[in-house]
Fold this protein.
Amino acid sequence: MSRIDERYLRARLDHTRLSRRELLRGLLHPVTASFAATPPPRQQRETPRPPQAQEETLLARLCSGCGACATVCSNQIISMEHGLPRLNLEHNHCDLCLACTAACETRALAPELPAMTGLIPEFNDNCVLSYGESCTLCQQACPGQAITLPATGLPLVSAEYCQGCSRCVQSCYASGCHMHPLPV
């Protein structure tokens, strides 16, 4: 077993440590009530991270701060901040090419996690639809087809289909939307 695999497994085990009481409770109760049936609650991220980033505490343990993910990012939207990767979608979008995940040797960015940034667009009154104008730029730019345009009012975003790539923000000439953390 390589040193990287050892480090990943150790961090994973430390992250999901069980007490004897929890272990016995899980073994003695039906499977539906066991520890394995209830995943730990996901926390809302304070800092945007690259796609497929581990949960924040596990990311902090696994990431070596090497910056390989930032180096391979063709859109230059990943930077290192306090030794951890940070996603900046203000001036460019994420292609979701996952080159950052492939470059990560410590599995802080893990391929088994969904390719999502944890961000979602929020539309505001600058959107031309709120003035009754016609525009479909954000909807056309969305690769996940997560944006629907109602007859009146602001566009609606399906959190189920949105990957948080920010193509909608980059396509909007009126600054009608911005990215914010996905609510838990």
The radius of gyration is 20 Å. Residues 3-103 form one domain.
